[in-house]
Write a structure and sequence with these properties.
Layout: H1 23-30, H2 39-65, H3 73-92, H4 100-118, H5 127-142, H6 149-173, H7 180-196, H8 202-236
Helix pairs in contact: 2-4, 2-7, 3-4, 3-5, 3-6, 5-6, 6-8, 7-8
Length: about 240
């Protein structure tokens, strides 16, 4: 979900001068075997991210078609557009095979957005949803207006995080309409994406890390709301 996620990341070619100077030494000190510098290891992490992406979407799409999950059309439209932007940015930057998992994710995310559109009558759309949707659509093209790659990533990340808004709003009232496991696994997938990065800077890490944290938050929020509603229903019963 953009990246969805991630899945979704801006490539090392953007090379912002704003390096996360404290991140690399800490990661290497705490887990030197988990974060090797070898290209083979990075490709393995990328392949693992691709496998997890498939494992994410197959059951999610199946649950949508069965009517068990009702994705919010605004959230998935924002995520689809954002993921395609990141994918094409990677291709232009020469990301090569590293961009294909993102391209695959973009296509599947677009398909889910189409499914969400046909099921939109089953989901309430509020004024707040429209506001967040318009805000995200404004932020998406704005990234191309800046020559600073870090700000481009900040804008894309902001748009993607705003995309969580309509889903979180609805999850508060109807938590059973979303697939909590999907977002939990999405957080894990984005962790693999970060591990697969060949260069660490705010430019490369911000997007997949922020989306991963948002996925984890939404998964926990869904579980919490389901539990609260279940306890409330038992009390009323």
């Amino acid at each position: 979900m953009t990246t969805h996620l991630a899945s979704q990341l801006m490539p090392p070619y953007l090379g912002s001068n704003t390096r996360i100077t404290c991140l690399r030494p800490i990661i290497r000190q705490l887990s030197p075997k988990i974060m090797p510098d070898s290209i083979i290891a990075k490709e393995l992490f990328s392949a693992a991210a691709f496998v997890v992406t498939v494992a994410l979407f197959v059951p999610y799409i199946r649950s949508i078609r069965k009517g068990q999950t009702i994705p919010h059309v605004f959230s998935w439209t924002i995520w689809a557009l954002g993921t395609f932007i990141v994918f094409f940015a990677q291709l232009v930057g020469g990301a090569g095979v590293g961009a294909w998992p993102i391209g695959f994710s973009a296509c599947v995310t677009c398909y889910i957005a189409v499914l969400a559109y046909f099921k939109r009558h089953q989901s309430s759309i509020t004024t707040l949803d429209w506001f967040l949707f318009a805000l995200a659509l404004t932020a998406l093209p704005a990234w191309g207006l800046t020559s600073d790659p870090l700000w481009a990533v900040v804008l894309l990340t902001t748009a993607d995080i705003i995309g969580f808004g309509p889903t979180v709003r609805r999850a508060h009232f109807q938590p059973h309409q979303e697939h909590a496991g999907f977002f939990a696994l999405g957080a894990f997938r984005n962790t693999l994406v970060v591990l697969a990065l060949e260069s660490y800077s705010w430019t490369t890490v911000l997007f997949p890390a922020a989306v991963g944290i948002a996925c984890l938050f939404l998964a926990c929020f869904l579980y919490m709301r389901r539990r609260i509603i279940s306890v409330k229903d038992k009390g009323e019963g």
